[in-house]
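Translate sequence into structure tokens.
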Amino acid sequence: MLKPRLESALELHRQAHPERTPVVAQMLELLRSPGDPLSRSRLDPGHFTASAFVLSPEGSRLLLISHLKLGRWLQPGGHIEPGDADCEAAARREVAEETGVRELTPIGSGLLDVDVHEIPARPKEGAHRHFDVRYAFIAATEQLVISDEVRGARWVELGRVGELNAEQSLLRCAERLAGLTLLRSARPR
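Result follows.
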């Protein structure tokens, strides 16, 4: 059930964001290949992960974590576990585990973004790629309970995300969210 829903979400994302077609094509190829593309033990070429771009309640700041293993400021996220109902549930679970933020309202009805990135080799795990599906949410509260899974977590003004991490992958999502926030605030109430 999870794989058909993910395939449908990827196809809808490709239609909404044709510039991401090459990345979506890589993801669909992995999804349709033999074996379990959701299992973290699949290292060739890699496996799916899920992450969350969480806006503060007023919509002007983004929740970032200081990643324990990679040593960079990133969005919360991680591996999809067998008990996760779908990839969005995995992203929600990761936010709760890493930051304590549990009340999340989805922004939009699908994927915010997709990205494929390299993960360096570590002692018990070879180099591989993460095929990351990304969701956007608004948090009900700014209160954080930082777990030992991360070095830290903080809310960052959308326009200042690049000061902590200037990777195009992260900035693309922050810019997309800033645009959505502007559209929301411009709507008549």
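Note: Strands lie at 46-55, 61-67, 73-74, 77-79, 104-106, 113-119, 128-139, 150-157.
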